[in-house]
Amino acid sequence: MINENAIWDGYPEETNAPYGLAKKMLLVQSQAYRQQYNFKSIVVIPTNLFGPNDNYSPVSSHVIPALILKIQKAKNSGRLDLFLNNDQSAHSIFSKSSESISVESTSLQKIFDENKISACKLLKLDCEGAEYQIIDSLPSEYLDKIQNIVMEYHLADTKPELVKSLILKIENAGFKIKTRPHYNDMGFLIARK
């Protein structure tokens, strides 16, 4: 079992270091903003610690697997299949494998509604391929509530039409977008109004 405080224990594994360090810096930045500006924020740091033997129960699971699985399905809340990766590092709702589990999910729209969110200064998405469904299904009036979006996007090379559609929807909501290719079929997107 790994404790949440272990996030600060040493340098991340080499293949995960760039985004591992970036996730740590989000936490440091959030703490600095809270101290200097009394800016209240929450930083969700998805990790690769969930796998086929993890507990995905919405009642008793670890926070990150439960949260990721709750927001992955964008069109409707309900159940979806999560396909498991053999190395337990990149499970996905897209990359079909022979092994999968069925999990509960919640739409971003429902999260806004249930929490009565009228304005969102920053939406950060790192959803292992579900970012397309999340944004595509979000009605424009919800995108209007968001000021900034930062996301890691997937399938950049293998399914470029998904990236084009994602960018178009966000641009049509009044955002200015910058993208930066990453590696391994991924990229980063920053959108500001």
Strand order, biggest sheet?
3-4-6-5
**How many H/I helices?**
6
Strand content: 15-25%
Mean pLDDT: 77
Just name the CATH architecture of the largest domain.
Answer: 3-Layer(aba) Sandwich
Catalogue the unreliable spans: none
Using DSSP, what is the number of strands?
A: 6
Order of helices and strands: HHEEHEHHEHEE
Structural class assignment: alpha+beta
Q: What overall geometry do the principal axes of the alpha carbons give?
A: globular
N-to-C terminal Cα separation, in Å? 42 Å
Rounded Rg? 17 Å
CATH class of the largest domain: Alpha Beta
Give the CATH topology of the largest domain: Rossmann fold
Provide the helix percentage: 25-40%
Number of domains: 2
Outline the biggest β-sheet.
4 strands, mixed
Would you write up a description of this structure?
The chain is an alpha+beta fold and 193 residues long. It is built from 6 helices and 6 strands. It has helices spanning 17-37, 63-72, 108-114, 131-137, 140-143, 160-172, and strands at residues 78-83, 100-105, 123-125, 148-154, 176-181, 186-192. The protein has a 4-stranded mixed sheet with strand order 3-4-6-5, covered by helices on one side. It has a two-stranded antiparallel sheet with strand order 1-2. A hairpin with a 4-residue loop joins strand 5 (176-181) and strand 6. It starts with 16 loop residues before the first helix and ends with a strand. The model has no long low-confidence stretch (mean pLDDT 77).
